[in-house]
Amino acid sequence: MDKIRENLSSLPGDECSLPVSLEVIGERWCFMILRAALNGVGHFEDFLSEIGIARNILANRLTRMVEAGIMTRRPCDHDKRKVEYRLTDKGQDLLPTMIALRQWGEKWETGVPSNPILCDSRDRLPIGQINMRAHDGRVLEMEDLCWIDESELNPKADGAGREDMVVRHLKEIGESSVA
Amino acid sequence: MDKIRENLSSLPGDECSLPVSLEVIGERWCFMILRAALNGVGHFEDFLSEIGIARNILANRLTRMVEAGIMTRRPCDHDKRKVEYRLTDKGQDLLPTMIALRQWGEKWETGVPSNPILCDSRDRLPIGQINMRAHDGRVLEMEDLCWIDESELNPKADGAGREDMVVRHLKEIGESSVA
DNA sequence: AATCTAGGTTGCAAATCAGTACTTAGATTA
DNA sequence: TAATCTAAGTACTGATTTGCAACCTAGATT
Q: In the prediction, which pLDDT does A150 show?
């Protein structure tokens, strides 16, 4: 498993976090467990019946995800037989990835939006398509992208220059939170 | 494998595309192959040396990805021994998912931005963090989300009402392409 | 004609998965 | 308080999948 990491980080000029991410949550069932957890599932037997995974595999995955800091494991106070699994911030931060994957499936596989629909609780409207954006919020397609070496980055990319652009953009769209 | 799909689509009120997506590109190595393809790799032997996968597994994955419509397979004209694998639109559309996963790894695992850096070719600045947004472009965090049943959607969600809001937002941020 | 190359296929051992039975600590019930 | 039940695992089994190396075949090169 660790061979993936070795292999790729040893390639010159190609130090990518993708293989590392995959090592942690790329295993079978991890995303399904994540989805269940996001839907409020927190107990072993509930994961079991919700996603139809084998007991031993579920135990293994939960252990690994706790070790990876994606979930916490805490025995319940009122019933000490029970254990509560809960997503950490790190785990919650996988939500965009999960939604993106789900939206891809909606678009290219099932063809229909999943029900129930994920909405913005502020206005109760469906959330938008997840996509790549420039620093200033423009949506980017694949052909708009290029790979630039760290050392050759446009100076505007760091320091006050960029901050200004971001701040200006946030004002334009009335944004409050910065990711 | 198809059991995942059966299992979940049979759960009442829970028809989600995630398991379907995972069936297609959830297998080990698929994302790594995707990444290589995005970096311009197109030949069997190149995938092999780039990602350190076994021959038979690579052959299997490429076949499956072609069947799934993620890649095309075309013998080269000038050298008929060679085959060119190329991402379809469907395959390219997995890019946001992949970037999101990579960014997650940068944030929570490696701690450093991958090099070279993925940039907007227009201004050569690094692309922004991939995140969830409301229909009008506001960035949404997990606690801003809720699940709403299809039948209970706010009427503004479809028809002219929503279109207007989207168009207005696009004008605000000077956006040209709609995903 | 002999060799080399790209893109596979085949066979085999090791690892992982899936399914079921068993275990153990703690709650509930008779 | 003993018998039962429940939640969360562990252990054992066979089936799949993986990784590795050897082999194969059509087409290019020498």
A: 87
pLDDT given for residue A167 in this prediction? 42
Beta carbons of A27 and A81 less than 8 angstroms apart: no
Residue A155's pLDDT is: 59
Tokens of B86: 């190329």
Q: How much is the pLDDT for B14?
A: 57
Distance CA B19, CA A164 (A): 42
Q: Could you tell me the residue range of the domain that residue A169 belongs to?
A: 132-178
| Best mutation target, B10, B20, B50, B61, to test chain A (most A CBs within 10 A) | B20
Residues B103 and B136 in one domain: no
Q: Give how many domains chain B has, as a whole number.
A: 2
* Residue with token string 């790894």: B105
Question: Is the pTM here over 0.90, yes or no?
Answer: no
Task: Evaluate whether A20 touches B110 at the Cβ level (below 8 Å).
Answer: yes
Residue A83 sits in a domain whose CATH number is 1.10.10.10
Distance B45 CA to D30 C1' (A): 23
Specify whether B97 is located in the same domain as B146: no
Residues A155 and A106 both lie in one domain = no
Q: Directed axis angle between helix B18-25 and helix A30-38, to 10°? A: 160
Whole-angstrom distance, CA of residue B14 vs CA of residue B8: 7
For A67, the token pair is 């070790």
